[in-house]
## 1
Amino acid sequence: MRKILFNPFRHERAERELDDELRSYVDELAEEKTRAGMTRDDALRAARIQLGGIEQVKEQVRDVRPGAWLGTILQDLRYAVRGLLNYPGFAVVVVLSLGIGIGANTALFSVLNAVLLRPLPVSRPEQLFDLSNPLSRTSVKNIFSYPMFERMRSVAGPHGIAAMSRVATVRALVDGDRETEPDSVQLVSGEFFELAGLSPALGRMIVPEDNRTDGGQPVAVISHNLWQRRFGGSAGVLGRGIALNGSHFTIVGVAPAGFTGMWIESPTDIWIPLVMQQAVHYSQNFRSTNADADKPWIAQDGIFWLNLIVRTRKNAAALDTVFRQWVAQTAEQIGDAEARRLALQQRLSLDAVTQGFSGFLRRQFTGPLFALMAMVALVLLIACANTANLLLARANRRQREIAVRLALGAGRGRLIRQLLTESLLLASIATAAGLAFSNAASELLVRNTLGTTAGPTPISTGADARVFGFTVALSVFTTLLFGLAPAFRATRVDLEGALRAGARGVREGARINTQKLLVVSQMALALILAVTAIWFADSLRHLGNVRLGFDKEHVVTVWINPQSAGYPSGQLQQLYRRLVESVESAPGVRSASVAMCGLATSCRDISDIRIVGYDSRPGEQVLVQENYVGTEYFSTVGMRLLSGRNFSDRDKKDGARVGIVSESVARRYFPAGNAIGHRFGYTDIGAKTGTEIVGIVDDARVNSAREEPPLMIFYPIQQGTVYGGSLEVRVTGDPAARVPEIREVVVGVDPNLPIERITVLSEQVGSNLRQDRLIMWLTSGFGLLALGLGCFGLYGVMSYAVARRIGELGIRLALGAAESRLFRMVFGESLALIAAGLALGLPCVFAVARVVSGILFDVRANDPVLVGLAALALSATAALTAYFPARRASQISPVAALRYE
Amino acid sequence: MEPADLLPGTLDLLILKAVSLERLHGLGISRRIEQMTRGTFQVKPGSLFPALHRMENQDWLVSEWGESESNRRAKYYRLTKPGRRQLEAEKVRWDRVAVAIAQALEAS
């Protein structure tokens, strides 16, 4: 080993000795021959001939030296660096195009890694499973009640199961601070941290003893991140008080660094025991049957709000038994016989959560991420083709040099290795450049899609071993892709031909063909990317123009949270009335209304209802989205009442229950058009005396422009005890200008009412399209890049072809060929390449169309107009590029051309 | 008789044998091999020098600079202890191969 390490450094001496040794060999041989009667000169010459090439012998000796490989690599590297410095323009172009390719791939892969691949930072994450409750078919999935959790714990044991709520945002106020801060909190059972196998960075975790007394154990564990951010990492944090939504807690521990909870899109700052649900007014992502959501949830069997995590599958059968016992007990309440039969057939299932829980993030991101990933892979392919082309062109200029090296005894294998070293060096520099921007790019990507401009990135996309491995593999793969063929081509030289001055190697024709083939595939790839970009742009255009069903202009939304302020439900109606009255009396306000759920947000309440007069198929669920709204709601947000009547003050709290349905509900369940007057409810019996349909409103995309209008039912807010989440205000003129006044008025009504934010509705609707807009920009960018690289490739190859044929063109001119004819000849050749590229690309485009159409909005992916548009744009740009080499060909002066030879 | 190509594996054996009696320089080794094989094998420099350097790296040979018969500086190679052991091992191996080949050719 020592020898291997030191050998390269003893290089000089070893070389000198080898030189001496071989010279002495020649001398001795010559001496022998002089003794045999030759003259001294003849003897020396004969001896040298007998030795063969002295450089070849040396090279053979060098190859058997230990550590020869290291020496050669260093030598190759030196040579490669020199080679690149000799052609800086070439190096810059290659590093830039490959750098963008590799950087974009790394950036997307690190996002993909964070969203889909990275395991949770807990012990043995592959053993963790989420219990899936097959009965919850609404949007809130896999949820259980606390009593169900207790039953399951009794069979799985305290180390086998843990429960957790969703992640909620609370107002946190650290003792001694003045400003509250929105922090994310999760309620967990005492088994949670033990099940995850996490030990505290400081203090202790939440343990089963913390979860005994309902409402009486106000302890909190904070994340390492929050500890650093808000307490400066001080050990004095233990025992500090923190108020969460007005309830006092004591910090008892700090979670280990890197652990941000189980939900990848909602990093958690604070964990508290499940028994504190009521104290922090946790009330989201739940489903209730025969239960009172205003009372503590811990004791109620009918409130489903917990995710259950188990370690290993070993208790699966026992848990399933418990689950089915529970189903059997509750099935009696299911009126419909078929539904009951189906419920009884359900089995508990276990879903692996190795990579953590995710709500919308994985659902929304996976498709686009893979599409973008494929796009950047294509961009990289084009960049590789470009680089290969440049290398081929350069190999031609270096042909004489390579021939000389081969003649002097360099092995072909060695030369190939040397050329590949150069390619690897290029790829490495490009990788370094790419990494520099990929970190920033991936964070930007995440921030833009999730719409968080400040604070810590919601999901960290930092490079880990997997990203690093990906990038290294990518750069090696890239090197082979663009370097191998040129290296083989470049070293296949006809020695005699190449060394003869001015002559060309016989392989050159083949090389030009390779270059043309590369250009054709670049054109094909560029077409695919250009079409994709146009698809996404068209998709976004459709999204922007989609009929919303409400009027997003001139509306301001105040996002209020009376719940986190601990408003008693008895005072809610008064609060709503005062809010609406005060705001409506403000200048420039036309009308105002409170609603449980605001527009274009993730707030949605979905229920399974029974409608009198509609015969559901066996087992069919009638799922509708519900909202509670004020009297002036429809006119405020601009939803059209199609028939029937609006809510009015006559719809009293204890009066007859009324509801207004959306048009699609009316059409779907009352095909005869007689919806008004019918009743519905949550059970078969309840429906008969339930809510009466008094009106029908237009369908509206209330959740997002992207989502189809849901089946909606609206109730008057005075007939429910719900917490209003939004105050919608219709104003005259610019809504943004009204925001400060409206804020002042709302604060004036109750300074303690938390205002989460105030938004302009049109912007809120637009923010739903943030992801689509980002994808549109990205795909357009990639499309343009591909177009640019493709044209660059075409230009390079055609310029080179013209330069190579300068002699021939000159002769043609001298013999009387018209300039226009030469122009047509070269230009025609370019057009043939472009046409071949399009012909190759079109079938691919239609194959891609099938895959990508799922994530496009209202775009028929194989629409010939869009594809034609992209093809036209590509050919026009490419033809423009091809004009220059063609013009150069036609402007050759015959004299100069002949002298060139 | 025409000079024959070396059989694979025999070059090491011949070199080890050549330097087993006294130290020799490069040309000396190839002359000794010619002499030992009565001109059947002629070792070309392109094979000789890589082999010498390889065997030196394997510690079978050591080299030193000395003065040749014609009073020139020359690099001499000498057998080491491991080299002598290697020579014995190669000899045994060669004997076995030679006997085996002879038997194979005699078989009818």
## 2
Amino acid sequence: MSHRTKSLRITQEGEVVHCILSGDWINEHSSSAARQSWREFWRNSTNSPQTCFFSMDSGLSWDSSLLVFFFDVTGELSRKGVCADLSRIPPKVKKLLDFIDQRRGDSLSQPSYPEAKAIASGSGEKLFLSNIFTYWGRWLQALANFLIGRSFMRPRDLLNICRDCGASALPIVTLISFLTGLTMAFVGSVQLEKFNASIYIADLVSLAMVREMGGLMVGIVMAGRTGASFAAELGSMKIREEIDSLRTFGIPAVDFLVLPRTLALFLMTPLLTLYADVIGILGGLTVGTQVMDFSSIHYWEQTESALTNMWEVYSGLIKSIAFGLIVGLVGCYKGLHTGSDSAALGKSVTSSVVISITLIVVCDAFFEVAFSFLGYR
Amino acid sequence: MIEKVKDLPVLEVNDLQIAYGSKVVLQQVTFSVHPATCLVVMGPSGCGKSTLLKALIGLIRPAQGSIKYSDAELWGTKDSIDPSLLARFGVLFQGAALWSSMSIFENIALPLETFSSLSEQEIREVVRYKLSLVGLHGTEDLYPSELSGGMQKRAGLARALALDPQILFLDEPSAGLDPVNSRQLDELIIELKETLGVTFLVVSHELESIFSIADEALFLSPKEKGVLQYGQPRNWLAESPYSEIRNFLRRNEGCPTFQQ
């Protein structure tokens, strides 16, 4: 069935305008030509019309595009102060337009919000900094409660989270730290061979791993893996009012949710770092024995002599504890302070990872500067 | 066992004003709830029913006004609420808000483990009893995600009942329940009210249930940003002076209905 294009015939007799619609007013056809003639008529019209009569050709088929047209032009006419007479259009269309009109009146009649005299401290937008300090203070309080044995934390939760962020992270930590050691050995070997000092590859890999790369790599893996999952988990709990329901029972969310997570990371990151150190050194050993033809004993003895001072290892572990706390605290903070919709949850997770990694690198630099100023390097 | 004090209201709200930032969403809200009665809060969406509820349970600090539980002020001069008051009320959230990482048993047992000195065996019995009360016996070991929305709601009610609170706040309890369960929930509310003297504050849309459970009702209006009418709802349909309330109860707004 072929359709006729939408068109308008507009005529004016004194102060009265007649607008006759013809063609098929359905969505498949563009109404731009009709709109164009409508606009042109009003631009050129003289002696300010008072009333506009609408009528439709008989047998005209229509759908919602007709309603859109009427909705638009009646609004325009009422702004111009012209009375729109819709008595000759089908009653169905008229009824629907009245319905829309009524709803429009409803929303307009709603008063604006009055100003509060006293702004409630708990409901206004608190300053970002005060939020962070409140969180930090609550966490210290929760830690103190835990140390004197009055915490709401369930030991079972702590163990479960330890497993999730410790043992379950072993495969990815293995892969990443092995490849880190391997890559460092490859890069270093080319340079050291120039000086005929290839065996020092063992020193380079072992020192770099225990001082820097072990902790850093674990920190970054934790930020992407565990921190993000904390933010997502707590964020969705917040959205589903689970945090509110904890509060109504008088169980602080920081005690019950944040403390076990941060403690688990506090315990697990140094262990994972130690593991990453060993695996990284094995990565170096692989290059040393397979590519550079050292014997494994020779390589191992060289590593041992590089690590005679155990402080090298300890300093890396101390840093990793700080990284773990950063990841836990940032992830949980972002989760607890997420907005109330799903998009806000995504943002929280993203920013928890970005902030954690940034803080880890900043903190790492801070430690190195502090160590060298204090003469520990 | 809940103490019955017939004269003193369990909850007294006086000239409450709630604001988000500097926007006032509710003002001049005054009402009181007496022991073993049920107050239903109703009104069109966006009128601030849930906001009022959040203020009453201490999740939002009101801009001004007072909320008193029996004799104790919820928000004193301190910046936080008195934790001893929390045990006086139980809350059923709109989406049940069960802790998703815990089984149904753990959800109900957690407040008991934390705030009562019951033995493990006793806790088990209490949980089983509370679950049967809402018709969910045998679901102890399931996780919230394994229950349907309506069942989660009932488990949430069991958790709200865990500590035998004086007053129960229910946020749209029958939303998501089938007619039979919704009816049974109403009966449970009446039963708890009459036998144990529990007081209820229910936010509801369900007209049928409002009339069967409500002793008093509060109609909030988005236009007034506050209470439009407060009292016994039985005759509101016919006699309320406000057309907004009559239309709400009659399920129309007096506008042309949409017909084919």
